[in-house]
Amino acid sequence: IAFGQRLWVCPCWKTPPDQNAVNMMLDPGLAFGTGTHETTALCLRWLDSADVAGKIVVDYGCGSGILAIAAALLGAKTVYCVDNDPQALIATQDNARRNNVTDKIQVFAPDAMPAIQAHIMLANILAGPLMSLSERLAGHTLNAGHIVLSGILQDQANDVSDTYSQWFNMDPAAIDGDWVRLTGVKAH
Q1: How many C-beta neighbours within 10 Å does residue 22 have?
Q2: So what's the pLDDT on residue 48?
Q3: Facing residues of 120 across strands?
Q4: In this structure, are residues 188 and 175 in contact, taking their beta carbons and an 8 Å threshold?
Q5: Sign of the CA dihedral 175, 177, 181, 182?
Q6: Contact predicate 129/66, CB 8 Å
């Protein structure tokens, strides 16, 4: 599946259709995230259009590691992957190995996450957890850094956006079906 101009997600058992693209080979294992869900697609399209080269990225709620690996393949310096499901951390490490980006990927349970600040904070989880984690995610984002939030239904978007507007200048929602992606730049 193509996401934007340069990023493809391919099952690990198939040959990529465009050898010149940024091809992510993926086996989700038991974790969530293959790129087919609208929330993941919204985030992948954002990453495809963003300048991630040399940046520090956090994928909070990493699942299969799809967003983290995409960021690494697109040139991120380091990607911190956080999930409370041990199977997700295993799937992320396996998929990082499959895509030759283990040197850029670090995995952590939420309580073990180091005190870093990222240029880009990705969180594709659900609206409720996004709102309860808002202070934590904002605290791990550099001033002028980007936040990319998904897993949000259209009727939840205003509440999530209002919560994050304490720290971020929020952009209008990007919509795909019933789902939205919210982005913003940290202002203070």
Answers
A1: 20
A2: 93
A3: 57, 146
A4: no
A5: positive
A6: no
Q: What is the DSSP letter of 171?
A: P
How large is the angle between the packed helices 38-49 and 66-73, nearest 10 degrees?
Answer: 20
pTM score > 0.85 for this model? yes
- Using DSSP, state whether 39 is helix, strand or coil: helix
Tell me the two tokens of residue 97.
């190995």
Given this model, what pLDDT does residue 30 score? 46
Instruction: Write the CB contacts of 15 (distance below 8 Å, at least 6 apart in sequence).
Output: none
pLDDT on residue 31: 44
Amino acid at 64: S
All residue ranges of the chain with pLDDT < 70 are 27-36, 188
Distance from C-alpha of 128 to C-alpha of 82, rounded to nearest angstrom: 17
Give tens-digit pLDDT for 132-168.
Answer: 999 999 999 999 999 999 999 999 999 999 999 999 9
In contact, 40 and 33? CB cutoff 8 Å: yes
**Residue pointed to by tokens 């040139």:** 75
For residue 59, which amino acid is it? D
